[in-house]
Structures are given as structure tokens and as C-alpha cells.
Amino acid sequence: MIDAGNPVSAPPTEPAPPRWWRRRRAWLVAALAAVLVAGAAGFFVLGDDDSRYPSSWDPRIEPYVSIVEKERALRFDHPVRVRFLADAEFEKTVRADEKDLDEDERREIEQAESLFRALGLLAGDVDLFEAVNEASGTGTLAYYAFDDETITVRGATLTRASRGTLVHELTHALQDQQFDVGDRLKALGKKAEAGEPTTQTDALRALTEGDAERVADLYRTSLDPKERKAVEKAESADTAQAVKDYEKLPQVVVALLGAPYSLGRALAEAFAADDVAELDALFKDPPPDDSVLLDP
Predict the structure, then answer these.
(1) Which tens digit of pLDDT belongs to each residue from 33-48?
(2) Of 247, 229, 251, 228, which is closest to residue 239 (Cα–Cα)?
(3) In what order do the strands lie in the sheet with 150-154?
(4) Looking at residues 114-135, what average pLDDT do you find?
(5) With the C-alpha atoms ordered 7, 260, 283, 197, is the resulting torsion angle positive or negative?
(6) What pTM did the predictor assign?
(7) pLDDT at 139
(8) Distance CA 80, CA 228 (A)
(9) What is the CA radius of gyration of the chain?
(10) In 3D, which of 261, 294, 287 has the Cα closest to residue 21?
(11) What is the pLDDT of the chain when averaged over all its residues?
(12) Max CA distance (Å), the chain
């Protein structure tokens, strides 16, 4: 599937700050081309080993754990590690190094770039790898990595701007624990490597992002009006530079990286509208293909 981003309309001339820019996660280099062409997620999960988990939550995170459990109507099985990194160190974790690409990965990226140019989606002197790399690092405040089940936060403290992002990422950790999302995506990735690509990967990845967006907005709505206004102001200020960078990037890259959020949000809300148990059932038995993203 070649995602179309927002299926309703093209980005406005002066786009509102897209929240997903604040939580771009560090896709593994090996999945870069797959993300561009098929939306496959670069998630890899280590084997179960309870010793890898902390015995308690970081005190800075614990209040938001309760919020996520309440809004998602599920409970965590165990705490997850949370690391706070200074800007420079954080940036290294969300950007890939082109020198690490192997020959097959370079060829796949070249093929993706050729396809986009043939379709009129890219023009001029554009380096697709660098464009995606820039998008992955722009404005990221935190992310949850399925490979080591760790949340990484930019900076030493939680700011108002990063709280909604933290709720989003904690929701991913909860999804992973309750529905084995990382293991499912890893299995789908192996099928693709074995010559059995499936758009179920797109559907599942969009579902996880849409659900996390939904929970983060429930958190914002639960705040008292004064605090909610302060959070919205902080988020807008924080994304001002990100929006400028966003406008410089090829629109096809913006659409592809934003598609799981916009399409998945509609899917998650449709199934959670009457009873969140219906959304849980969808996680347990994910759609077999990506057609559900166009017609939830």
C-alpha cells in the first residue's frame, strides 16, 4: 500500500502543527524503504525476560501511567524502562546513518525514489533517505521502542509540551503488553522478508498509532480548562520550528509518515465509539489487510 496521508484533503497552505511530528519514533534503518513503499514498521522485539523490566515506575512517569490505564481501560503488566536524554544524545537515537545501509537497502530506497518520481510525487534535487531522516528527527519529544520496550524522552524533565506525547508512548507500551503488538509486527516483517508481503502490517501499525492518538486526546480533554489551555499553548510553541521544517520536506514524505496517525485515528475511534471492548477485539484479531483504513 502506498499511503495517501490525509485522505480527505491535501495539507492546507498554512498547516496546523501536526501532533505526530512531536512523537516520530526511531524506525530501524532496515525498515526505511519498507516504510516508504509499503508502510511496514521497523519493530523488533527481544525475547521475554522479566529481569529486563524495572521493579517500579520512574516517579516522573507514574502519574501518566494511571492516566493511560484509566483512559484505555486496561492495566500494565509491569513497568517499562524510561530514559531521559539530553538533546544531542537524543537526536542520535532518532536519526539513521546512511553509512549503515547495506547494498539491498540502498537499492530499495533508490527504487522507492524512482517510483515516486515516476508518479510525479518527487521532483528536483531530493535525497529521499535524508528527507525521511530529517522527518524522523524533527520535533520528536519522546518515543517507545518495541525492540527493547523502552520509552526515551528528550530532556531531563517533562515539559507541558511533552506530556501528551508521553501519554501516547505509554499507550504503545500498554498495547505491546496486552496485545503483543511488537511480536505481531515482527512476525509480519519476517513474512515480508520471506517473500510474503502483507498489508496487514499497515493496518496494525495504523491501529496502534490511531489508538495512541485517541488516548492522548482523552488525556488533554480530561484536564481542567486552564491547564488544557496551557498545554495547548506549550505544544504549539514547541512545534513552531517543526512546522517550518515540515514545510520544507517533500509532501509525499509528510503524507507517508503521517498516514498511520490520520487513518488509524479514524479506525480506532470507529471501533471504540460504542464500547472500547470492540477496539480490544480488533487488536486481538487485527484486520487481514489495509482496506479497513479506507472504510473502518
Answers:
(1) 344 433 333 333 333 4
(2) 247
(3) 81-85, 150-154, 142-145
(4) 88
(5) positive
(6) 0.82
(7) 67
(8) 27
(9) 18
(10) 261
(11) 82
(12) 54
